[in-house]
Amino acid sequence: MMINSLLIITVLVSILFLIKIVDECEANNNTTFDNNYVITYGNDHFIQLNQGQEVQLTMDNTSGTGFVSKKGYGSGYFEMRIKTPQSQSPSIVTTFYLGNKCDESMSNCGHSELDFEFLSTEGPPYNLQTNVYSNDYGGREQQIHLWFDPSQDFHSYAILWNTHQIVIWEGTWASNGTGADWAKAPFQAHYQEFEINGCEYGTTDCSAANATFWWNKKQKWALNPRQQRSYDNVKAKYLYYDYCQEKGMLVLFVLLGLSCKGLLLVKSQKSDSNFDENYKVTWGFDHVLSLNQGTQIQLSMDKSSGAGFASKQSYSSGFINLRTKLPDRDSAGVVTAFYLSSDGDKHDELDFEFLGNREGKAVTLQTNVFANGQGNREQRTLLWFDPSNDFHTYSILWNPYQIVFFVDDTPIRVFKNNTKKGVNYPTKPMKIQVSLWNGEDWATDGGKTKTNWAYAPFKAHFQGFHVDGCSSVNSDCNSENKYFWNTKKYQSLDSNQIRAYEKVRKNYMNYDYCSDRSRYPTPPPECLDKP
């Protein structure tokens, strides 16, 4: 396969846990390993799990193992969910990369490659190296310290662009010459997510000129303002080596006509913002604990009290995110809430309410919308992952056009501003509110299942205290020029978001007030809108 150029390459790293469904992907992917991949070596060190939806690669001092896609690709969005080996040792390298193969029959082929390389250490820190090869020219290493432990759970890693391969192998170079500690073997890495969003090479035009593929569309040609800020934030805080800063290498790349621009994008949630910058504790002060220099907050609840915090400012529009890990074990009756709310009787409110359950049963996520004091717009969704295992990102997009509730970038609810049809739309300034409290009278099985206080204290954790919001003291919170969340891209869902939204509603929603004819014989006007 010949790859003519790698002119626009973006490498993304996601911090969403267990499941991340970006706007191009869908939930509940049932693609199995055998659909798109084949083992390349180390067959006896390879195991398929969960009916082929997960594979385990093992390495000891006899062999490692690897697999590769069956087809070659000329462009695409390639994503893999990976959990690196828990037995940490120098020299153990887990990789996920795209690369072409050249042989003597292919003139002017030139090796091209896009790399994720997880450099195992006795971490933290946990090191991730990316590299880009084009026409045999590599040496473009960038290295970051991951802000999480990649061996504790699955994380999603994606490359926007070309041929697909995965290997786990031993590399002394990765640890400054320190060999592997084989006493800790076998080293085991796990992979999930085997669907491929790629243009098969040689079957059609895979270039950016072919806009039939979503990854070639104009909105994918450059970062949007929010991505650019996230990219700059990660480079500033976590990038510890950049080939562009090596003077000799930079001169070489300038002579070759190559660029240092745009080779690494890490998608973060600004999780290092300090709590005190934008928030304050509002109640249950002795049940609040600040962790990691204020970048994480723990709320606890026992029989005596729960706890809560709120933003210092009110906002009139924004894209509000919070990374949350819910109480584990038996959390029946426990309510963890993240919501926006205005003051006064006829208040506006946008709710995430996580309704705890008995251990082993799915947590219900209830959303609600209040406008001018009118609520009773509940929708309930069974989460497709365990939200107590790790942090997930929950977001509320609120602009003059729509309100969208997101779970790890997947839209689960859309509320359109259609006042012409009689829709009552939230417009009052709102503060961000977070609380952990006892809702046993209603939260689980309609109040039949009570809180088991033997498991107290119940603890919820929160990160990501940066606020993308327009303070209500401003008069231009609907400006498209000033605030990215008001721009055309955020005024409606795109086609991929709609597919993900519809799939989640079909597979996981178990209550929608719009369909409850006992409460609403005539559906409210907002129920007639499409996303």
TrEMBL record:
Domain of life where this protein originates: Eukaryota
Enzyme type, top EC level: transferase
Principal location listed in the UniProt entry: secreted
Residue span, GH16 domain: 25-226, 219-462
Keywords carried by this UniProt record: Apoplast, Cell wall, Disulfide bond, Glycosidase, Hydrolase, Secreted, Signal, Transferase
GO molecular function, one term: hydrolase activity, hydrolyzing O-glycosyl compounds
Its EC number(s): 2.4.1.207
Subcellular location: Secreted, Cell wall; Secreted, Extracellular space, Apoplast
Alphabetical list of InterPro entries matching this protein: Beta-glucanase-like (IPR000757), Beta-glucanase/XTH (IPR044791), Beta_glucanase (IPR008264), ConA-like_dom_sf (IPR013320), XET_C (IPR010713), XTH (IPR016455)
Signal peptide, first to last residue: 1-27
A biological-process GO annotation: xyloglucan metabolic process
Keyword Hydrolase: yes
Catalyzed reactions per annotation: breaks a beta-(1->4) bond in the backbone of a xyloglucan and transfers the xyloglucanyl segment on to O-4 of the non-reducing terminal glucose residue of an acceptor, which can be a xyloglucan or an oligosaccharide of xyloglucan
GO annotation, cellular component aspect: apoplast
Residues annotated as the enzyme's active site: 349, 353
Pfam families assigned: Glyco_hydro_16, XET_C
PANTHER family listed in its UniProt record: XYLOGLUCAN ENDOTRANSGLUCOSYLASE/HYDROLASE PROTEIN 8-RELATED (PTHR31062)
Protein name from the UniProt record: xyloglucan:xyloglucosyl transferase
Source organism of this protein record: Cannabis sativa (Hemp)
